[in-house]
């Protein structure tokens, strides 16, 4: 099976519970989810991931405090934007959109 086919079959199996993965498995999973990442060292990837998730948390906290007003969270957005790989940002945005859609539909 070619690498793209392997990646496709692995991503179609559904959501992955990252908490149940070993550090090595998390790194491999992250590399599959982040095709724009050029490195392979797990310590570099782990550090990048931590910085990304921290900046994501700060940005989303700012949005929560400011009723989703992005103009008031420009600094936090820039940090988030500069800390995360493009593929990670897309994944995070998709997850947030799903959560937002779920919370609005449950309020109807």
UniProtKB/TrEMBL annotation:
UniProt keyword terms in alphabetical order: Disulfide bond, Mitochondrion
Gene Ontology CC: mitochondrion
For bias type Low complexity, the affected ranges are: 1-13
* Domain of life where this protein originates: Eukaryota
Origin organism of this chain? Cavenderia fasciculata
Protein's name according to its UniProt entry: Cytochrome c oxidase subunit VIb
Q: Where does the record place a coiled coil?
A: none
Principal subcellular localisation of the protein: mitochondrion
Region (Disordered) spans which residues? 1-20
**Locations listed in the record:** Mitochondrion
Upper lineage is:
Eukaryota, Amoebozoa, Evosea, Eumycetozoa, Dictyostelia
Entry keyword Thylakoid: no
GO BP annotations of the record are: mitochondrial ATP synthesis coupled electron transport; respiratory chain complex IV assembly
Q: Which Gene3D superfamilies match?
A: Cytochrome c oxidase, subunit VIb
Q: Which Pfam families match?
A: COX6B
